[in-house]
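Example (one chain per record):
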Amino acid sequence: MSKKGLLVSYNWCTGCHSCEIACQMENGLPVDQFGIKVSQIGPWQYGEDKWQYAYIPTITDQCTLCGKRVEKGKLPSCVQHCQAKCLKIVSEEEAAAAIAENGKQLFMTL
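Predicted structure:
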């Protein structure tokens, strides 16, 4: 059986931090702790007309992929509340296919 994990299409993340807040609320985490954390990269210019500016959600050791929610048929809290719909729970095979199609994605398993 293939492992499932979190696929992050970070080229679509807007940096709204909804995933962070949803995770904190779902898991009762303190304000300074996260199961998922959004980091800002840039902005900086690296060519005449090119800029680096992105947000990248990353899971932390406190992430459980909301196992109790998933057992009830629900999505993990971060996935459900992602406003840009850039977070998905997929199998390793689905992640490999998605990354082959568009490289600006991360796949994280627990």
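Caption: Helices lie at 18-27, 67-71, 77-81, 92-101.
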